[in-house]
UniProtKB/TrEMBL annotation:
The keyword Transferase applies. Residues 7-153 form the Glycosyltransferase 2-like domain. It comes from Apibacter mensalis. InterPro entries: Glyco_trans_2-like, Glycosyltransf_2, Nucleotide-diphossugar_trans. This is Glycosyl transferase family 2. Belongs to the glycosyltransferase 2 family. Keywords: Glycosyltransferase, Transferase. The keyword Transferase applies. One of its GO terms (molecular function) is glycosyltransferase activity.
Length: 348
């Protein structure tokens, strides 16, 4: 049976404890036609020694040692440039694959020649064991790009020809959100996405990931990443409106993109009017985003206004009733509690 070559790029940096598990998960795949490109970013631990001792004689594996630490984006770009496969897959040095991950992704890519990017769900382990799900269809993924990265980046498989023909390399100037930035450029070039609804990638949570910090048992976005992400949200929105559009109102855009919460009720009413006009305009130009998604998003922002109120009152209840048709719906039990708190002038 024909098996197109798949190149797997592994950027490594100080992963001596974990790298063998990851590489061995590739060598044990049900899919055999693999090229494994390991790009070491000047590790200071025993990672290079482990790679040399255990994997240099394996013909499937090529080890590249960089002379300067330039980050994972640079390492992945080196891998893309040197890959010979029809498809390129990624693996972080401290993670590993399910045994049939590559086989299932290749089946999707071969059956759907218009798909440029195929990912999967994740299963986290280490600090927390949990399946992380993502949007599946291209339409869902395209919509969700407006609010953040809706694709599991390390689980991604790319169509090599599409990436190279469109010059879609990682932005090495970004230390955060370089994956989100790349996916946006794929989207703006017309690339199609798909996610397999199975957790085929095992993602290790160590507490050291660049995009997350842990505080009071909650995962909080790194502030620098958030600033970059906000700029990227605007880049996605440019499919619909830009600074030259009559509908361009930064205050309302930031509310839609959940950059801030509207605090003034008059502003909230004007925001609803603006959002309805935005949806009409979206439909008039062929729906860069689904109208259902835009409606759901702006209604969540309206709900955000009420959830942000610290002191509830009859006035807040009146406001809630006034805009109720344009507000995302609370769970019935929660909604009843909220109304009672308003009547009794309780704090929220």
């Amino acid at each position: 049976m024909y098996q197109p070559l798949v190149s797997i790029i592994i950027p490594t940096y100080n992963v001596e404890k974990y790298i063998e598990q990851g590489i061995d998960s590739l060598l044990n795949q049900t899919y055999s036609n693999l090229e494994i490109l390991i790009i070491d970013d000047c590790s200071t631990d025993n990672t290079p020694a482990i790679l040399e001792k255990k994997y240099t004689k394996n013909k499937k594996i090529k080890i590249i040692e960089k002379s300067e630490n330039l980050g994972p984006a640079n390492s992945r770009n080196i891998g893309i440039q040197q890959a010979h496969g029809k498809y390129i897959a990624l693996l972080d040095g401290d993670d590993y694959y399910a045994v049939d991950k590559i086989e299932k992704q290749v089946q999707v890519m071969e059956s759907n020649p218009d798909v440029a990017v195929c990912s999967t769900f994740l299963y986290t382990f280490g600090l927390e064991e949990k399946e992380i799900r993502f949007p599946i269809s291209h339409i869902e993924i395209k919509d969700q790009q407006l609010l953040g990265c809706p694709v599991a980046h390390p689980a991604t498989m790319f169509r090599t020809s599409y990436i190279r023909e469109n010059n879609l390399y990682y932005n090495e100037n970004l230390r955060f959100s370089e994956d989100y930035d790349l996916f946006i450029r794929v989207l703006l070039q017309g690339g199609k996405f798909m996610t397999i609804p199975e957790a085929l990638y095992f993602y290790r949570l160590t507490g050291n990931q660049a995009s997350f910090t842990r505080h009071n048992n909650k995962i909080l976005k790194n502030e620098k990443q958030w600033e970059i992400s906000k700029a990227l949200h605007y880049k996605v929105l440019s499919q619909l409106i830009d600074e030259n559009s009559k509908l361009y109102h930064k205050k309302y855009i930031d509310a839609l993109l959940v950059h801030h919460v509207i605090r003034n009720f008059q502003d909230l009413k004007l925001f609803i009017v603006w959002a309805k006009r935005l949806i009409e305009y979206n439909e008039s130009i062929g729906c860069p985003f689904s109208s259902k998604f835009l409606e759901s998003t702006y209604k969540k922002s309206v709900l955000g206004y009420f959830l942000a109120q610290k002191q509830l009152s009859w006035k807040i209840l009146y406001q809630y009733v006034t805009v109720y048709p344009y507000c995302a719906k609370l769970d019935l039990t929660y909604q009843i509690k909220y109304i009672i708190k308003c009547i009794l002038f309780l704090k929220h």
